[in-house]
Design goal:
Layout: H1 7-14, E1 20-26, E2 35-41, H2 59-72, E3 75-81, H3 83-89, H4 91-104, E4 112-116, E5 127-130, H5 138-161, H6 167-170, H7 176-185
Parallel strand pairs: 1-4, 4-5
Antiparallel strand pairs: 1-2, 2-3
Length: about 210
């Protein structure tokens, strides 16, 4: 394994931690859909080739990496927080909640967490928040891939329910086509009604998109 990408995992193991989970989320920026987090405990058999920040991978390479992670990781947990909760408690708190749910959904309790970003989770476990962690930690990079692929799959399923918005193409992100669709059709049930670019076209909108 690439030692640079294993630096934080190795440091945790030196301290006596054995089950180190990387945690990351996908979907903070979209105007629609859930925020999805994943927690991944890597084994020693997973080749790190292609395991990097999910945003740096093409969809094809990301899916291939996702399948390798699913075959070789010791444990994977996923957490999903829907748009109505995001509107109620804001996107930062929803992201942290999704991370906590992902950890809770692991088949065993990890003893240390590596969190992407600058905020720790409320999970009562030793943990480290790592800015840009998806580019610095193999476990977090793997979590970013699982979260992204899972969320993209959910948005493709939502496209079947609300095809007029094009969720299969932009996955809910604020592209020009998505903004125009909201202007034309208004909100659908998975839109984040407190977000700028949506709330203007949803008279009943509440919540906020601020951290």
């Amino acid at each position: 394994m690439n030692q640079d990408l294993q630096q934080f995992e190795n440091e945790a193991r030196v301290q006596g931690y054995r089950r180190v989970a990387g945690v990351d989320e996908a979907g903070r920026g979209p105007l629609a859909g859930p925020v999805v987090a994943a927690a991944v405990v890597l084994g020693d058999t997973l080749p790190l080739e292609g395991i990097r920040d999910s945003k740096q991978l093409t969809p094809k390479k990301r899916l291939a990496a996702y399948r390798r992670i699913c075959r070789n990781a010791l444990a994977i947990g996923v957490g999903v927080i829907d748009a109505d909760v995001i509107d109620r408690i804001n996107i930062l708190q929803s992201s942290l909640r999704a991370m906590a749910v992902a950890v809770d959904h692991l088949p065993f309790r990890p003893d240390y967490l590596l969190i992407d970003g600058t905020y720790p989770t409320a999970v009562p476990l030793p943990q480290m928040a790592i800015p840009k962690g998806d580019a610095r930690s193999a476990s977090i990079a793997a979590a970013s891939i699982v979260a992204k692929v899972t969320r993209d799959g959910l948005m493709e399923r939502y496209h079947a329910c609300y095809p007029e918005y094009g969720f299969d193409r932009h996955k809910g992100y604020p592209t020009r086509a998505h903004r125009e669709a909201v202007k034309q059709h208004g909100c659908c049930p998975i839109h984040r009604r407190g977000f700028k670019g949506v709330k203007e076209f949803c008279p009943e909108a509440g919540g906020n998109d601020r951290e």
